[in-house]
């Protein structure tokens, strides 16, 4: 398993997941939930998010095969989702709305859709089309450790960075995501065109 470990792939996967999960950018939302008296359990949120993401990373491929969709096609679709997420971060607009019935803060909106949402799911499978699984899993584990630390120290981090600092970080990672979505789209669209040409 570790024979296919590649530091460059791991680092790229870590940065992509860091930007998509965007726990720093979620600090204002978490603080707002706490102010409203909605409990946020760091252990539960991190554990459930990790289980969902890891489960989808390994079982998502089987689900795609069930619907006769290959990873390259899913990666192109994922590129669109990441593109929309980047627009949210850069332009301060809300595209993904949470209109579900569950009101418990740890599960909704913290676990889903903030930590283990559509963006993170599509990103994991999109990364799988380019990188070895071991590099993505290690990157995911370290991101979850970071998420746990941030959830535990939310108040201190907000005081340290300030609202301006969090705002700047959110914008920066929005631009990173925009570039990643463009790369994913072009790389996997090329693969799809090559596959189509082979069929003909």
From TrEMBL:
InterPro entries: Multi_antbiot-R_MarC (IPR002771). Pfam families: MarC (PF01914). The chain crosses the membrane at residues 12-33, 40-59, 71-93, 105-125, 131-151, 172-193. It comes from Phocaeicola sartorii. Keywords: Cell membrane, Membrane, Transmembrane, Transmembrane helix. GO terms for cellular component: plasma membrane. It comes from the Bacteria. It is a multi-pass membrane protein. This is UPF0056 membrane protein. It is found in: Cell membrane. The keyword Transmembrane applies. Its main location: membrane. The keyword Membrane applies. Belongs to the UPF0056 (MarC) family.
């Amino acid at each position: 398993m570790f024979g296919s470990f590649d530091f460059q792939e791991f680092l790229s996967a870590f940065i992509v997941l860091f930007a998509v999960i965007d726990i720093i950018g979620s600090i204002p939302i978490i603080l707002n939930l706490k102010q409203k008296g909605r409990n946020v359990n760091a252990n539960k949120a991190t554990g459930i998010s990790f289980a969902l993401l890891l489960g989808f990373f390994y079982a998502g491929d089987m689900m795609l095969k069930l619907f006769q969709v290959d990873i390259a096609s899913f990666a192109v679709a994922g590129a669109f989702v990441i593109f929309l997420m980047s627009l949210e971060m850069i332009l301060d607009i809300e595209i993904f709305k949470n209109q579900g019935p569950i009101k418990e803060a740890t599960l909704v909106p913290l676990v889903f859709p903030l930590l283990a949402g559509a963006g993170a799911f599509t990103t994991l499978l999109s990364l799988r089309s380019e990188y070895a699984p071991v590099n993505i899993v290690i990157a995911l584990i370290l991101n979850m450790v970071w998420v746990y630390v941030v959830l535990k120290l939310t108040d201190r981090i907000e005081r340290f960075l300030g609202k301006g600092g969090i705002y700047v970080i959110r914008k920066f990672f929005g631009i990173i995501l925009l570039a990643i979505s463009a790369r994913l789209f072009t790389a996997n669209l090329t693969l799809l065109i090559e596959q189509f040409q082979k069929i003909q």
